[in-house]
Amino acid sequence: MTQQANPLERAANYLHQQGAKSLEELEALMGQSSDDWEACLREVSEGQATFQPEPSEHIPTPVSGEGPKWCVKEVVGHYLVTERSLNNAVAGLAGVAPPPDPGPTVSEMGAQSADYEVLPLDVLREKLSAFFEETAGLIGALRSSENLGATFPHPVFGPLNMTEWLAFHGLHAMDHIQQIERIKTAGGYPKA
Predict the structure, then answer these.
(1) With bands split at pLDDT 50, 70 and 90, how would you rate the model's confidence at 58?
(2) Residue 160: strand pairing partners
(3) pTM of the model
(4) 156-181 pLDDT per residue, tens
(5) Taking the CB of residue 9, how many other CB atoms lie within 10 A of it?
(6) Are 183 and 72 in contact (CB under 8 A)?
(7) Nearest 5°: CA angle at 158, between 76 and 71?
(8) For residues 158-185, b (16+ Cβ closer than 10 Å) or e, as one string?
(9) Helix (H) or strand (E) holding 158
(10) 170 neighbors 30 (Cβ within 8 angstroms)
(11) I need a surface site. Which of 2, 105, 121, 152 has the fewest CB within 10 A?
């Protein structure tokens, strides 16, 4: 009888498998992640985006344990600030030009961005779209890099190479999109 891997082992295996794919396949993964974010947020109103689950509600958190009571805008802000910082780190280690307007460096899990969280949801949607365009540009630049095997550590998954870090964008998106879907089912979530 085989024993099932724990969620963190499954996530690490996913990163390694996805990171072994071609840059074209990773670019397609980014396109799918962008589409998933768009679908998740399509029907969310500004009022719904600022809804905070009650402290007594149990909204399971992402695998990492981040943001147990975050509203939708806080989840999106977290994703944007951490993933944009990640793009800058990947570009630096790979020896390619960083994306424009790099934003702050993030050094810990669960980082949030008050700058993003105060923006209207429509602006956050635009920023998500721009982030995935930025990432596609980074992937294009990585085609000329000889440093794709360089690694830097993730606090949970350990050392990841450049393509595994790109795959992390997709895993992190899945994690937080699921978190938003759970928020949508919480008691008191506004109808509109």
Answers:
(1) low
(2) 152
(3) 0.89
(4) 899 999 999 999 999 999 999 999 99
(5) 11
(6) yes
(7) 15
(8) eebbbbbbbbbbbbbbbbbbebbebbee
(9) strand 158-161
(10) yes
(11) 2
